[in-house]
Amino acid sequence: MESTTVKSLKETVLERIESLSLEELNVVVTFLNELEKENSGKEEILAYKGFLKNMDDDFKTELTTGLPEKRLKGSKSHNTI
Asked: How far apart are CA 50 and CA 33, in angstroms?
């Protein structure tokens, strides 16, 4: 079930769309197409979400935060001469 806020926002967007010219509607459609294209890549990444769901929280934190920090520290130590 949609929240009242989401429903209200959708109604507001639809009301505003009703008053747009054809040219403005084309701009909106182009924007929506770009947004969908941008989000399609995120869906591919999120395909691993089920894998992460069953993973230990500490291990998840290590993969998402600890590992990049360690790599960054490692690369800095190799760059100092």
From this structure: 27
The tens digit of pLDDT for each residue in 5-26 reads: 999 999 999 999 999 999 999 9
Distance from C-alpha of 17 to C-alpha of 13, rounded to nearest angstrom: 6
Q: What pLDDT, in 10s, does the model give residues 68-80?
A: 777 777 766 665 5
Alpha carbon 17 to chain centroid distance?
24
- My answer on whether 66 and 43 are in the same domain is no
Alpha-carbon distance of 25 to 27, in angstroms, equals: 5
Same domain, 5 and 43: yes
